[in-house]
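Training component of the fellowship. As part of building independent skills, the fellow (R.M.) carried out the full modelling exercise for a liganded target. The chosen ligand was coenzyme A. The inputs are recorded below so that the supervisory panel can assess the work.
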Amino acid sequence: MNYAAITGWGMALPERIVTNDDLEQFVDTSDEWIQTRTGIRERRVAQPGERTSTFATKAGQHALAQAGLSPKDIDLIVLATCTPDRPFPATACTVQANLGIPAGAVAFDVAAACSGFVYGLQVVTSMLRAGVARNVLFIAADIFTHYINWQDRNTCVLFGDGAGAVVLQPSQEAYGQLSCVLGSAGEHEDLMAVEAGGTRLPTTPELLEEGRQYVYMQGREIFKYAVRDMAASSLQAVEQAGLQPSDIALVIPHQANLRIIEAIAKRLKMPRENIFVNLERYGNTSAASVPIALVEAVEQGRIKDGDHVLLTAFGGGLTWGSAVVRWGREGLIAR
Ligand SMILES: CC(C)(COP(=O)(O)OP(=O)(O)OC[C@H]1O[C@@H](n2cnc3c(N)ncnc32)[C@H](O)[C@@H]1OP(=O)(O)O)[C@@H](O)C(=O)NCCC(=O)NCCS
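Fellow's submitted model of the complex:
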């Protein structure tokens, strides 16, 4: 059985920065409340004309360059997103066209909200290991602020936009995803949702008037499940990889709330310095949160070849997932 080593990585963010002080100007909140309850100081927000594919394409370009591959080498493009450019076609097809990846490559989207990167990693790893794909571009990108009502302080302080991407290639050595534990709980589908715009409630002027095109969320409930399910699936993923928590060099958690991350660290009995956090600069970037953190951790030298890295995420659905990845790119199988 081949492994699916991560051989390239990249990220892209909107240039526009919205600080907590900026939010204070138009909604009843404070920098103090946001920092104490979430750890977030600022976030990046897409501007008119910028689409999910804008950032997905840039992140994909960086990942291809890092891997030393050209667009014609790619035979599978998967994009994890819950904010596609359009209901259809898949935004992965738009990225294929933007990057000049030749026709015949396979392109599709995966929707698992903030768990999208861990879900998609399992999908692409499985396809690569099954031999139905060779050089894979896997991107997670969201413009979650598309769903934000900037008057709703319960949600508008939490989210930001961006994209992260990885390239995966077959390797004979045990690199890439070694284990993965995914789960969903549809019974809690209503804890966090966007009501209008789908087939259940097609958009009408009345629904728009009521603001039903925006995300609503029961934050406190989600908080509890996020801690429970990310911690439990993390421990399972570590065990499934034949490891102990002490073997994990770095944890890359979904960047939703610093208090959630600290509670998970406690359950995993992990020292704080082994947990990567960048949410103070980006907020919750939905599916893009884990790969943006992964890319920054690599660029800061926090991940070295041979390290075991634990990825863990949680999102609407409810969905959650954890994966152990071994970093490195030796033993690549020649094309
Ligand atoms: C949303 C979240 C930050 C709220 O923190 P919390 O400590 O649970 O706060 P509560 O919801 O209990 O609200 C406490 C008070 O702060 C108020 N509040 C909420 N947002 C506020 C804001 N931006 N500024 C100031 N006050 C705010 C609430 O109205 C409430 O006031 P009340 O007690 O008078 O009713 C937290 O629950 C959370 O992060 N949950 C997970 C959400 C998430 O990550 N979702 C995405 C999953 S991928």
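The panel noted the following from the submitted structure. Residues 29, 33-34, 37-38, 114, 153-154, 157, 217, 219-220, 222-223, 256-257, 284, 314-315 surround coenzyme A (CB under 6 Å). The CA atoms of residues 36 and 178 lie 36 Å apart.
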